[in-house]
Amino acid sequence: MTSTLIANIGELVTCDASLGDGSALGILRDAALVIDEGVVTWVGAATDAPAADEIVDAEGGCVVPGFVDSHTHLVFAGERSAEFAARMAGASYTGGGIATTVAATRAASTAQLRSAAARRFDEMTASGTTTLEAKSGYGLTVADEARLLELSGEFTAETTFLGAHVVPPEYVHNRGAYVDLVCGEMLAACAPHARWIDAFCDLGAFDADETRRVLRAGVAAGLMPRLHGNQLAHGSGALVAAEFDAASVDHCNHLLDSDIDALAAAGVAATLLPAADFCARTPYPDARRLLDAGITVALATDCNPGTSYVTSMPFVIALAVRELGMTPAEALWAATAGGAKALRRADVGTLSVGARADLVVLDAPSYVHLAYRPGSNPTAQVFRRGVRVSSGPR
Ligand code: NIG
Ligand code: FE
């Protein structure tokens, strides 16, 4: 493999506090970076840059780590724009529309699901995402959940079994039997294709005890826990996540001080999904409260057809800055290094020497443009494992 020098970087954001200006973003000015075998092998001043086989000119722009989108529902079929329009006319979000997507997903062919997921994946890549997590949860039968996870595995290693998304219509009068199925036959079929176990622990979905059963079974099958929690109402999601040493609890719109204390003590990351709140018109979480408590905050799209048909991490960063009270620096860190921590990954999310060469060359002089120009796609080039996977907006 040939080595590549990214030259002429006006502002290099490494998200490694041991580099550059010593801030959490580890910023170097007038910098360069070398990639070899898909890994960052050198970072430093442009004037000291070593020779390489190939040169990429960053044209004085900013380079940031590729975004780590640690919460997506990538694979689904169906159409729910009417539900969004109804919400914008005053209806409220309950999660009831999940059944619509489940029916459409079950009816779709594997080829249809694959091509729809590939289109979303390409959109994500073109806006700078280089690592993503993808969940099942729209199949809710043994065969359909396994099918969604196998398909997810074609796009990412970060696959999550979410059989406990909601109780499907055929089990509404027998929810205990559905939880038995999730913890038994469904888990057995899905565990070989998944790295994570998740449940939607919230109003209208699963309660604390059902969630505990699912996580316990998942952990026994070798999966690592993460949770959807505290989105629609105050519930037990955060506390159960802390109890299980989950990598992350996601949404976090309704938290008491006791939840925050438990997350901080257990070292659970809080993944905030402001695009879901934007599209569901629900109250945003308070990032400042989490950051002040020393909790790792991650930002992700929650790409799904119900609450957040969003693939753009730059849009999520802009929302986090405008609506969650995060600084542009905190939001960029949360969308890269924070997402990596929420996935317990040490190889992505920073541009340290030895990290995977996942990076975005921005068509902008500063990372602040990610928040300052909402709605634009500021990516000029995207590299995943040192390979150019996008040359600017689609
Ligand atoms: O993460 N919270 C639960 N699940 C999704 C929404 C699912 C849907 O409405 O289809 C979410 O927001
Ligand atoms: Fe979600």
What is the gist of this entry?
With 394 residues, the chain is of the alpha/beta class. The chain has 13 helices and 17 strands. The two termini are 28 Å apart.
Describe the protein.
The chain is globular. The longest helix is centred in the N-terminal third of the chain and has 17 residues, at 110-126. With 394 residues, the chain is α/β, with parallel strands linked by helices. The chain has two domains: 4-65 and 350-390, Urease, subunit C, domain 1, CATH 2.30.40.10; 68-342, Metal-dependent hydrolases (TIM Barrel, Alpha-Beta Barrel). The strands form two sheets. Strands 6, 7, 8, 9, 10, 11, 12, 13 and 14 form a nine-stranded parallel sheet that branches. Strands 1, 2, 3, 4, 5, 15, 16 and 17 form an eight-stranded mixed sheet that branches. The chain starts with a strand and ends with a strand. It contains 13 helices and 17 strands. N-(iminomethyl)-L-glutamic acid is lined by residues 95, 97-98, 101, 200, 228, 231, 276, 302, 304-307.
